[in-house]
Design a protein that fits this description.
Elements lengths: L1 H60 L2 H20 L18 H20 L5 H19 L1
Protein name: DUF327 family protein
InterPro entries: DUF327 (IPR005585), TM1646-like_dom_sf (IPR024042)
Pfam families: DUF327
């Protein structure tokens, strides 16, 4: 009889180990998701830094090549933000034409990029005006992922 009790305690220990390993799988998947979101956020921060640097270059050089690079970086940032699950803030309200408010930020970004292009083409615009437009675009981009 003594042998059966020792055998039973060994089985109980194995069952306890299996229960802890099954419970441990959930935190692992949560950790993977957290790390994935951290990497995406880090990638967005890197893209934002690239956008800021390209904006500074535009203010100094005022040429079309830098403007084209800036526009492509802004588009890439918006695409990354949408692809990696950063949800565009949607409110329950709609504008007069029935469109949701979530599209307003992207439309504003496009409008500001067009205005920035026109400012660069217009030789009379000062660097301060161009920097103001770049700052507005940066604010809209930050609004996308905060």
């Amino acid at each position: 009889m003594k042998i059966n009790q020792e055998l039973r305690t060994g089985i109980d220990k194995r069952n306890a180990n299996q229960k802890t390993s099954a419970a441990g799988s959930k935190p692992f998947s949560e950790m993977v998701l957290k790390q994935e979101s951290k990497l995406h956020l880090q990638q967005l921060n890197t893209l934002m830094a690239n956008v800021e640097e390209a904006g500074r270059r535009i203010a100094k050089s005022r040429n079309m090549r830098d403007l084209s690079r800036y526009k492509s970086l802004v588009r890439r940032f918006v695409q990354e933000a949408v692809d990696y699950g950063l949800k565009v803030k949607q409110s329950g309200s709609f504008d007069y034409s029935g469109n949701s408010r979530s599209l307003v930020t992207v439309e504003q970004l496009d409008q500001h990029l067009i205005e920035l292009t026109e400012s660069l083409l217009n030789e009379d615009q000062s660097s301060i005006d161009i920097l103001a437009k770049i700052g507005e675009i940066k604010g809209l981009l930050i609004n996308l992922y905060t």
